[in-house]
Amino acid sequence: MNGRYVNGRQFNGRTILDRQIVEVQNKLNNRPRKVLGYKTPTEVFFATITQTYSAVDPVVAVDS
User: Cα 1 vs. chain centroid, distance in angstroms?
Assistant: First the structure.
C-alpha cells in the first residue's frame, strides 16, 4: 500500500488485524487526491462504474 506497510501480518513485531487493514484502506480511499481533481478514489471509481453501466443496454430476458 504505497510503501507504507509491509506485506504479511507482522509489522514491527505486531500482528495487524483485518479491521485495522480495513480502517487504513478506508482512510486512503476516501482521501482527496490532487491528481484526481481533488476527488477521492472512491468517488472516481463509482463515477466510472455508473458511466460504464449507464451506457450499456440492459439485457432483456425473453421467455421461450
Answer: 12
Give the residue extent of every domain in the chain: 10-54
How confident is the model over 9-64, as pLDDT tens digits? 677 778 888 898 899 999 999 999 999 999 999 999 999 998 888 776 666 555 65
Find, among 17, 49, 45, 52, the residue nearest to 30 by Cα: 45
| Beta carbons of 33 and 39 less than 8 angstroms apart | yes
Angle of helix 18-29 relative to helix 41-54, nearest 10 degrees, comes to: 80
Residue 10 φ/ψ, nearest 5 degrees: -105, 135
pTM (two decimals): 0.58
